Amino acid sequence: MKVLVLGGDGFCGWPTSLHLSAKGHEVKIVDNLSRRYIDTILEVDSLTPITPIGTRLATWETVSGNTITFENMDIAHEYDSLVRLLREFKPDAIVHFAEQRAAPYSMKNPKAKRYTVDNNVNGTHNLLCALVESKVDAHVAHLGTMGVYGYGWSGSAPIPEGYLPVKVQTPEGELTREILHPANPGSVYHMTKTLDQLMFAFYAKNDGVRVTDLHQGIVWGTQTPETIQDERLINRFDYDGDYGTVLNRFLMQAAYGHPLTVHGTGGQTRAFIHIRDTVKCIELALDNPPQNGEKPAIFNQVTETFRVRDLAKLIGDMTHSEVMYMDNPRNEAEENELIVENAQFLSLGLEPTTLSAGLLEEIQDIASKYKLRADRTKIIATSKWRS
Fold first, then answer.
1. Is 193 marked active-site?
2. What CATH superfamily is the domain 2-378?
3. Annotated catalytic residue: which of 48, 116, 124, 145?
4. Is 194 one of the catalytic residues?
5. Running along the chain, 387 residues long, what does each successive block of 10 average in pLDDT?
6. Which of 14, 19, 255, 373 is most buried by a 10 A CB count?
């Protein structure tokens, strides 16, 4: 299979590119390297050392014997180049990671908000429009987020995989319909993902574009079987207040001897998935594409849920770390339930990596090993949802 990985230099895109290459697919990465530039803006580096893209690709060829090609392109603004690439490469599948992925960064200031919308929405629409213009029938696997649903789905009702059956009373009687699950984004980043799913629905209905939208939880873990083969292939580990996930921040803080910073009551429940399971889910999605004319397939790409305070206790007990409660910079409920359906990936053969099985490896091999690269001034989250 010929696979185009948009955003293939990023946290999820890089290990996915290597995984697909290792499986024998012909992989081309398209990336404008913006995530590296954002590190410059934020004046913070990945806890793990990230080599230049050329070094990464050359190392992979040496280690595996497989070649991954690369094109530096901004799909949000280089539409004609994107159409040309589709016509020349003729991909069978496109994995779409080319979006600014951090909720805190998307709320940092007006410039970051506008950049997130400009990059994410334009990029997704340019891709869909270019597929139609180029007449390339490629299956699009897009990395969405559980955050499109928000965290206000109350009680014990599980969040379905994308679609919700509804009944509408009319003068003629009761109508039954299936709709996209109501969106409730909690940040500008999450808002762009809700717009993505509307664009996917339209282009699937109007032009027969085949789309799988993967509503993913918080990704944890750093290494995959491919990235662990050479340190020059190592994946990102973001720990700062803008790009570091709650789990990464806790792990780095524990390794550094800093208290684990819990925002608010810590009663926020979040969904999680290991990066090894992420790349496997992408592979499963590519192996099971929807047919032309079908509505977008939507998978909840999660394996576990935890309350933030319970996660802090788990890591605190393992590392003998203190927990520090701080004001919550986000505009969100202090407590929420989260029950998520994820039967589709499990039925396709996914065998999840659990937090209890993988945390010790992450603490020893990543957080502790590279802790001296951390910048203590970047630990605290400073981006606020309210002015």
1. yes
2. NAD(P)-binding Rossmann-like Domain (3.40.50.720)
3. 145
4. no
5. 98 98 98 97 96 98 98 98 98 98 96 98 98 98 93 74 91 90 94 97 97 95 96 96 92 91 93 95 97 94 93 93 93 86 89 85 90 90 84
6. 14
